[in-house]
Amino acid sequence: MEPRPAAYPDQLIAIGAADAPFEPVLDVAELSEGAMRRITRGELDILLAHTPAGIVATDDRCPHMSAPLSIGELDGCVVACPLHEGRFDLATGETDQMPTTGGLDADGTYHPTWSPGGRDAKVDPPGKKAEARRLTRVRRLRYYPVRIVDGRIEVAIPHG
Ligand code: FES
User: Fold this and answer.
1) Which parts of the chain have pLDDT scores under 50?
2) Fewer CB within 10 Å, N side or C side of the chain?
3) What is the predicted pLDDT for the residue at 109?
4) 84 lines ligand 1 (CB under 6 A)
5) Whether 152 contacts 26, CB under 8 Å
6) Of all atoms in ligand 1, which is nearest to the CA of residue 65?
7) Ligand 1 midpoint to CA 92 (Å)
8) Which atom of ligand 1 lies nearest, measured to the CA of 100?
9) Looking at residue 160, what is its pLDDT?
10) β-strands 152-156, 22-27: how paired?
11) 0.85 surpassed by pTM
12) What is the pLDDT of residues 134-155, one digit of tens each?
């Protein structure tokens, strides 16, 4: 199928991206379906992912604690973060699986810590660290508009 930009929820556009100029970032041929790449412009690291829903551009920072999603695993439209088992849906911006550290979801609901494989969850000793994990909110992903022009992927990237 021809590579195409993925649709995303309008309200989840990244700050400043609605008015940003499009700039070419990569040849479409360099991003086969299932592939992810990091693109850096200034201090902005952007994740390009070629999902079954199309090509997505979002921050290459996990919405939990900022790890680079580009070195995680892409399974369909869901990217797994290399830290803490968090999984995020690139088609909707929603969290598919909360990180093992628990914390607040995008709507502010608290989720407890958990461990993979049914093992007992790691319990933080009470204190600032535990409180920080509890209060860390996993936001919805934010998107940068994508278009394809003459075989190049272009992304609207805010500068400054
Ligand atoms: S930094 Fe990604 S799940 Fe924690």
Assistant:
1) none
2) C
3) 98
4) yes
5) yes
6) 1
7) 18
8) 3
9) 65
10) antiparallel
11) yes
12) 999 999 999 999 999 999 999 9
